[in-house]
Design a protein that fits this description.
heterodimer, A: 114 residues, mainly beta, seven-stranded mixed beta sheet, four-stranded antiparallel beta sheet, globular, B: mainly beta, six-stranded mixed beta sheet, five-stranded antiparallel beta sheet, 11 strands
Chain lengths: 114, 110
Protein backbone atom coordinates (compact mmCIF):
# COMPACT_ATOMS: atom_id res chain seq x y z
CA UNK A 1 0.00 0.00 0.00
CA UNK A 2 1.22 3.51 -0.78
CA UNK A 3 1.34 5.96 2.05
CA UNK A 4 3.28 7.89 4.63
CA UNK A 5 4.76 6.31 7.72
CA UNK A 6 5.93 8.08 10.84
CA UNK A 7 7.73 6.45 13.67
CA UNK A 8 7.51 6.09 16.53
CA UNK A 9 3.90 6.83 17.46
CA UNK A 10 4.90 8.01 20.96
CA UNK A 11 8.28 9.37 21.97
CA UNK A 12 9.55 10.42 25.38
CA UNK A 13 12.72 12.39 25.94
CA UNK A 14 14.48 14.24 28.70
CA UNK A 15 14.96 17.96 28.41
CA UNK A 16 18.25 18.88 26.75
CA UNK A 17 18.32 15.89 24.42
CA UNK A 18 17.97 16.12 20.66
CA UNK A 19 15.43 13.74 19.11
CA UNK A 20 14.78 12.77 15.49
CA UNK A 21 11.32 11.96 14.15
CA UNK A 22 11.10 9.75 11.09
CA UNK A 23 8.91 10.34 8.03
CA UNK A 24 8.92 8.08 4.96
CA UNK A 25 6.65 8.12 1.89
CA UNK A 26 6.33 5.73 -1.04
CA UNK A 27 3.90 7.89 -3.03
CA UNK A 28 6.67 9.29 -5.27
CA UNK A 29 5.73 12.79 -4.12
CA UNK A 30 8.18 15.61 -4.64
CA UNK A 31 7.17 17.80 -1.71
CA UNK A 32 7.21 16.95 1.98
CA UNK A 33 6.16 18.93 5.04
CA UNK A 34 6.41 18.92 8.83
CA UNK A 35 3.66 20.39 10.99
CA UNK A 36 3.19 20.78 14.68
CA UNK A 37 -0.15 20.68 16.46
CA UNK A 38 -0.82 22.17 19.88
CA UNK A 39 -4.20 22.09 21.68
CA UNK A 40 -6.66 24.63 20.27
CA UNK A 41 -4.38 25.65 17.40
CA UNK A 42 -4.22 24.83 13.73
CA UNK A 43 -1.40 22.83 12.21
CA UNK A 44 1.66 25.07 12.05
CA UNK A 45 4.30 24.59 9.37
CA UNK A 46 7.82 23.87 10.67
CA UNK A 47 9.78 23.03 7.50
CA UNK A 48 9.01 21.94 3.97
CA UNK A 49 10.95 20.55 1.05
CA UNK A 50 9.93 20.69 -2.60
CA UNK A 51 12.86 18.74 -3.95
CA UNK A 52 15.70 16.52 -2.78
CA UNK A 53 18.59 18.38 -1.12
CA UNK A 54 16.52 21.53 -0.68
CA UNK A 55 14.21 22.71 2.10
CA UNK A 56 12.72 25.93 3.44
CA UNK A 57 11.74 27.20 6.86
CA UNK A 58 8.09 27.39 7.72
CA UNK A 59 6.47 29.65 10.28
CA UNK A 60 8.01 28.06 13.39
CA UNK A 61 11.39 26.63 12.34
CA UNK A 62 13.39 27.80 15.36
CA UNK A 63 14.76 24.89 17.36
CA UNK A 64 14.19 22.36 14.56
CA UNK A 65 16.32 20.99 11.73
CA UNK A 66 15.58 18.76 8.73
CA UNK A 67 17.35 16.98 5.89
CA UNK A 68 16.15 15.70 2.51
CA UNK A 69 18.81 13.36 1.17
CA UNK A 70 16.30 11.01 -0.46
CA UNK A 71 12.96 11.70 -2.10
CA UNK A 72 11.24 9.22 0.20
CA UNK A 73 12.54 10.51 3.51
CA UNK A 74 12.26 13.79 5.43
CA UNK A 75 13.42 13.38 9.06
CA UNK A 76 12.84 16.15 11.60
CA UNK A 77 15.25 16.78 14.49
CA UNK A 78 13.89 18.55 17.53
CA UNK A 79 16.90 20.15 19.15
CA UNK A 80 17.46 21.20 22.73
CA UNK A 81 17.04 24.80 21.52
CA UNK A 82 13.31 24.26 20.98
CA UNK A 83 11.72 25.83 24.04
CA UNK A 84 8.41 23.92 24.03
CA UNK A 85 9.00 20.65 22.17
CA UNK A 86 6.11 18.67 23.67
CA UNK A 87 3.52 18.46 20.88
CA UNK A 88 1.96 16.29 18.20
CA UNK A 89 4.00 16.24 14.97
CA UNK A 90 2.52 15.47 11.56
CA UNK A 91 4.38 14.79 8.34
CA UNK A 92 2.75 15.25 4.92
CA UNK A 93 3.64 14.96 1.27
CA UNK A 94 2.15 16.24 -1.98
CA UNK A 95 2.56 15.88 -5.72
CA UNK A 96 2.78 19.53 -6.61
CA UNK A 97 3.38 18.94 -10.31
CA UNK A 98 -0.31 18.22 -10.93
CA UNK A 99 -1.21 21.62 -9.48
CA UNK A 100 -3.52 20.33 -6.77
CA UNK A 101 -1.13 20.65 -3.80
CA UNK A 102 -3.34 18.13 -2.01
CA UNK A 103 -1.42 16.90 0.99
CA UNK A 104 -1.37 13.34 2.30
CA UNK A 105 -0.65 12.92 5.98
CA UNK A 106 1.10 10.36 8.13
CA UNK A 107 -0.33 9.12 11.43
CA UNK A 108 1.76 11.50 13.53
CA UNK A 109 4.22 11.25 16.42
CA UNK A 110 3.39 12.50 19.89
CA UNK A 111 6.54 13.81 21.55
CA UNK A 112 6.72 14.39 25.28
CA UNK A 113 9.76 16.08 26.78
CA UNK A 114 10.15 16.20 30.55
CA UNK B 1 1.19 35.25 9.89
CA UNK B 2 -2.14 34.70 8.11
CA UNK B 3 -5.20 34.19 10.31
CA UNK B 4 -7.61 31.43 9.33
CA UNK B 5 -10.68 31.17 11.54
CA UNK B 6 -13.06 28.25 11.83
CA UNK B 7 -16.35 28.36 13.67
CA UNK B 8 -17.78 26.94 15.73
CA UNK B 9 -14.90 25.45 17.67
CA UNK B 10 -17.01 22.38 18.46
CA UNK B 11 -20.47 21.08 17.76
CA UNK B 12 -22.56 18.31 19.31
CA UNK B 13 -25.56 17.17 17.26
CA UNK B 14 -28.01 14.31 17.20
CA UNK B 15 -27.96 11.67 14.49
CA UNK B 16 -30.00 12.93 11.55
CA UNK B 17 -29.38 16.63 12.20
CA UNK B 18 -27.92 18.73 9.40
CA UNK B 19 -25.06 21.01 10.30
CA UNK B 20 -22.67 23.52 8.81
CA UNK B 21 -19.33 25.10 9.67
CA UNK B 22 -17.54 28.23 8.51
CA UNK B 23 -13.97 28.90 7.44
CA UNK B 24 -12.83 32.54 7.09
CA UNK B 25 -9.52 33.47 5.52
CA UNK B 26 -7.64 36.43 3.99
CA UNK B 27 -8.65 36.59 0.33
CA UNK B 28 -5.60 38.36 -1.10
CA UNK B 29 -3.05 36.10 -2.82
CA UNK B 30 -5.39 33.15 -2.31
CA UNK B 31 -5.05 30.16 -4.67
CA UNK B 32 -7.29 27.38 -3.37
CA UNK B 33 -9.23 26.16 -0.35
CA UNK B 34 -8.72 22.65 1.04
CA UNK B 35 -11.04 20.85 3.46
CA UNK B 36 -9.80 17.86 5.46
CA UNK B 37 -11.52 15.42 7.80
CA UNK B 38 -9.48 14.17 10.76
CA UNK B 39 -10.89 11.24 12.68
CA UNK B 40 -9.48 10.31 16.06
CA UNK B 41 -6.40 8.07 15.85
CA UNK B 42 -6.24 8.45 12.07
CA UNK B 43 -4.48 10.76 9.60
CA UNK B 44 -6.24 13.82 8.15
CA UNK B 45 -7.92 12.94 4.85
CA UNK B 46 -8.69 15.33 2.01
CA UNK B 47 -12.36 16.09 1.39
CA UNK B 48 -12.38 18.88 -1.18
CA UNK B 49 -10.14 21.31 -3.05
CA UNK B 50 -11.87 24.39 -4.42
CA UNK B 51 -10.40 27.24 -6.40
CA UNK B 52 -13.06 29.32 -8.12
CA UNK B 53 -15.43 31.84 -6.59
CA UNK B 54 -18.85 30.21 -6.33
CA UNK B 55 -17.37 26.69 -6.49
CA UNK B 56 -19.53 24.02 -4.92
CA UNK B 57 -18.32 20.48 -4.31
CA UNK B 58 -20.23 17.48 -3.04
CA UNK B 59 -19.27 14.05 -1.71
CA UNK B 60 -22.21 12.00 -0.50
CA UNK B 61 -23.93 13.92 2.30
CA UNK B 62 -21.11 16.48 2.59
CA UNK B 63 -20.89 19.59 0.46
CA UNK B 64 -18.86 22.79 0.47
CA UNK B 65 -19.07 26.24 -1.07
CA UNK B 66 -16.45 28.91 -1.65
CA UNK B 67 -16.54 32.71 -1.76
CA UNK B 68 -13.09 33.95 -2.74
CA UNK B 69 -14.03 37.64 -2.84
CA UNK B 70 -15.05 37.85 0.78
CA UNK B 71 -12.81 35.00 1.94
CA UNK B 72 -15.05 32.31 3.36
CA UNK B 73 -16.12 28.72 2.80
CA UNK B 74 -18.99 26.72 4.25
CA UNK B 75 -19.04 22.98 4.84
CA UNK B 76 -22.46 21.32 5.12
CA UNK B 77 -23.31 17.85 6.38
CA UNK B 78 -26.83 16.65 5.67
CA UNK B 79 -28.34 14.07 8.02
CA UNK B 80 -25.29 13.65 10.29
CA UNK B 81 -24.28 10.12 11.22
CA UNK B 82 -22.06 8.96 14.12
CA UNK B 83 -19.33 8.11 11.60
CA UNK B 84 -19.18 11.81 10.64
CA UNK B 85 -17.69 12.54 14.07
CA UNK B 86 -14.29 14.08 13.40
CA UNK B 87 -12.38 17.35 13.34
CA UNK B 88 -12.91 19.26 10.10
CA UNK B 89 -9.95 21.39 9.02
CA UNK B 90 -9.91 24.07 6.39
CA UNK B 91 -6.68 25.25 4.79
CA UNK B 92 -6.46 28.03 2.23
CA UNK B 93 -3.42 27.85 -0.02
CA UNK B 94 -1.17 30.86 -0.52
CA UNK B 95 1.59 30.16 -3.03
CA UNK B 96 2.69 26.61 -2.34
CA UNK B 97 1.78 26.57 1.36
CA UNK B 98 -1.41 25.60 3.15
CA UNK B 99 -2.41 27.62 6.22
CA UNK B 100 -4.59 25.56 8.54
CA UNK B 101 -7.40 26.71 10.77
CA UNK B 102 -7.78 25.22 14.26
CA UNK B 103 -10.66 23.04 13.08
CA UNK B 104 -14.26 22.36 14.05
CA UNK B 105 -14.81 19.29 16.24
CA UNK B 106 -18.06 17.52 15.36
CA UNK B 107 -19.61 14.90 17.64
CA UNK B 108 -22.72 13.10 16.42
CA UNK B 109 -24.75 11.23 19.04
CA UNK B 110 -26.88 8.25 18.05
Amino acid sequence: DGGITQSPKYLFRKEGQNVTLSCEQNLNHDAMYWYRQDPGQGLRLIYYSQIVNDFQKGDIAEGYSVSREKKESFPLTVTSAQKNPTAFYLCASSRERDGSYEQYFGPGTRLTVT
Amino acid sequence: ILNVEQSPQSLHVQEGDSTNFTCSFPSSNFYALHWYRWETAKSPEALFVMTLNGDEKKKGRISATLNTKEGYSYLYIKGSQPEDSATYLCAPRYGNKLVFGAGTILRVKS
